[in-house]
Amino acid sequence: MDTTISTLGPCAFASPLPLNTVGNDLIGNFVPDEERVRFNIVVDGKPDSRDLRFERAGPRQNLFFDPSKTRVALVTCGGLCPGLNNVIRSVFNELFHNYGVKDVLGIRYGYQGLNEAAGLPPVTLTPEIVEDIHMEGGSILGSSRGEQPASVMVDFLEKHRINILFCVGGDGTQRGAHTIVEEVRRRGLPIAVVGIPKTIDNDIMYVRSTFGFVSAVDRARDVLSCAHAEAHSYPNGIGLVRLMGRDSGFIAAMATLASQEVNFTLIPEVPFKLEGEAGFLPALKKRILKRGHALIVVAEGAGQDLLAGSMEKDASGNVLHKDIGLFLKDRITAYFKQQAVPINLKYIDPSYIIRSVPANSEDCVLCDQYARNAVHAAMAGKTDMIIGLWHMFMHVPIAMAISARRQVAPESLLWHSVISATGQPQTFE
Predict the structure, then answer these.
(1) What is the pLDDT of residue 258?
(2) CA distance readout (Å), 96 to 74, 105, 132, 363
(3) CB within 8 A of 81, min separation 6: which ones?
(4) What is the CATH number for 66?
């Protein structure tokens, strides 16, 4: 795979940032383009064709854009996520206060705002507008799902004389950003498009942790604590909690480990059967008869093979999953009734609450770093890329970031830890 980052051309302008290239002088340093971040740090001594090396993120000594003549736009797309306002604020502050870029536009309601026909004029961001927005959940710019025609969006960029576009969103958003890049190239325009990865599911390739994910796990842990109290307080009490995780079970897995009270965790990456000697329902019955209560966590995309459904997709191109939470609630209730075992089942779905909260401290820091590194990259004329994070922040071509979905590996230490914490079998077959 080619990790080369596209650039708009030579960097002819000196950076205004008070940094240098001298070591050990207590002054921060510019990052040379030649520095690379090795993706794999565990090696067996054999040649490895997967020895990927990514361009290291950080401020460059020379810029492609003249800050005094640069106009920037920023758009937030897809589902809400803790930290969106933090990213907006830090992008603006880095541009306005450190680079001297005074013209920053906020695009309203996702890619819809890049279509003049939608009637959504952009917002001119100012220090006063962004001052306190990091204290709030959601996005002050609003959001939406789905793309707009690339030609229409680039028409908008041309009309508004935009030099840099920041696209904050998940894989669907970044696919849209890539189509914008292709149209920009077709027209021969000097416009940089840089992505900032956002998904509460934490499923973007070459990104160890997307902003908002840790905040979601924090809030999910609180929900699990309440669900455990409910289950533990009633005879044969069962707490069933459905968490977000369309195709990746990271929130469910990490919240389980944070809680240490969960007895069963079901994720999309590990298929399971309900019936049969080694099925989930008999295992749940055994737990109830032995301990008198149980707490179950299920990711929204788990067990979809058990539900009859269509391949209908949402505006972002994601398959619309059936509700596994309600399905399990009904099947558990029916099973225990058939077994003549009375239960007290509480079903909790906190999805929209979890994704709408303000970012916690760890995510606040992460948002700031993603945002500022995105600005550094864009001002140096880099394009068709996202800010990735593995061992450190790095530049990842959009084509690589959207090539696959990051998922929980069933044979990983992470999933082994979940199995150990819950005490559930390796599989329900």
Answers:
(1) 97
(2) 13, 12, 16, 22
(3) 198, 199, 200, 210, 211, 212, 216, 355
(4) 3.40.50.450
Q: Are residue 331 and residue 386 in the same domain, yes or no?
A: no
397 and 346 in a common domain: no
Asked whether 239 and 296 are in contact (CB, 8 A), the reply is: yes
Task: Show the domain range for 290.
Answer: 213-354+410-422
Q: Provide the domain count of the chain.
A: 2
Q: What is the pLDDT of residues 117-132, one digit of tens each?
A: 999 999 999 999 999 9
Query: Is the residue at 1 inside a domain?
Result: no
Q: Are residues 283 and 414 part of one domain? A: yes
Residues 363 and 232 in one domain: no
CA nearest neighbour of 422 among 278, 252, 281, 277: 252
Instruction: State the catalytic residue, choosing from 103, 171, 201, 368.
Output: 201
Same domain, 131 and 15: yes
Which has the minimum average pLDDT: 304-308, 312-316, 387-391? 312-316
What pLDDT score does 315 carry? 55
**In the annotation, is 305 catalytic?**
no
- Position of tokens 């399905």? 327
* Residues 401/395, Cβ–Cβ less than 8 Å: no
In which element (H, E) is residue 232 found? Answer: helix 213-232
Statement to judge: residues 201 and 74 lie in one domain = yes
Angle subtended at Cα 111 by Cα 106 and Cα 112, rounded to the nearest 5 degrees: 95
Q: What is the pLDDT of residues 164-181, one digit of tens each?
A: 999 999 999 999 999 999
**Helix or strand or coil: residue 200?**
coil
Rounded to whole angstroms, the Cα distance separating 378 from 193 reads: 7
pLDDT tens digits for 47-79? 555 689 999 999 999 999 999 999 999 999 999
